[in-house]
Amino acid sequence: MVKVLFVCLGNICRSPTAEGLFRDLVRRHGLDDRIAIDSAGTGAWHVGSAPDKRAQAAALRRGIDISGLRARQARREDFERFDYVIAMDRENHRDLRHLCPPGREDRLHLFLDFAPDTGTRDVPDPYYGGRQGFEHVHDLVERASAGLLDRIRQDLE
Ligand code: 4NP
To answer: Which atom of ligand 1 approaches the CA of 137 most closely?
Structure first.
């Protein structure tokens, strides 16, 4: 089993979007019994909350229901439990580096490094923007998810 954790700031917009979208991709490839997926936030403000309504709506427009997810905060032990701890932007990456126990740094990744042709390294925080921001998040997440799945399939071979 390969275990993947997506991490953003609040765990109500970007990382639950990535969790739902990547789970759907993994299922379509018949790999749901080989890859486990979760998400978390570096911050604690929204712990226990469902994804932002706008993130839910953007996912539903693609046939993906993320309404059942609940936010939690990332913790040190996540670096023991997960093979891939994937930051949505460089700020999340920096915060996670401080949380990461010595010797586990190889598990920490920046999501858009799996989609080098996007021309950006950060999935932008859509919280204070409009619907367009959530659509942009989806496009970036879709592209990086494809690259991540390629990488994990190599691990599984
Ligand atoms: P996320 O978006 O990190 O993609 O879940 C945010 C959600 C909430 C806040 C910031 C970002 N906030 O400051 O409450």
So the answer is: 4
φ, ψ of residue 85 in degrees (nearest 5):
-110, 115
Pocket of ligand 1 contains residue 66 by CB under 6 Å: no
122 lines ligand 1 (CB under 6 A): no
pTM of this structure: 0.98
Q: Model confidence over 83-97: pLDDT tens digits?
A: 999 999 999 999 999
d(CA 130, CA 100): 33
Please give the tally of structural domains in the chain.
1
Question: Predicted confidence band at 132 (pLDDT cuts at 50, 70, 90)?
Answer: very high
Q: What residues make up the domain containing 37?
A: 2-156
- Packed helices 14-28 and 53-60: angle between N→C axes, nearest 10 degrees: 20
For 28-39, what is each residue's pLDDT tens digit?
999 999 999 999
Query: Can you tell me the distance from the alpha carbon of 28 to that of 32, in angstroms, rounded to the nearest whole number?
Result: 8
Q: What is the CATH number of the domain that holds 67?
A: 3.40.50.2300
Instruction: Answer whether 6's CB lies under 8 Å from 88's CB.
Output: yes
In the residue annotation, 8 being an active-site residue is answered as: yes
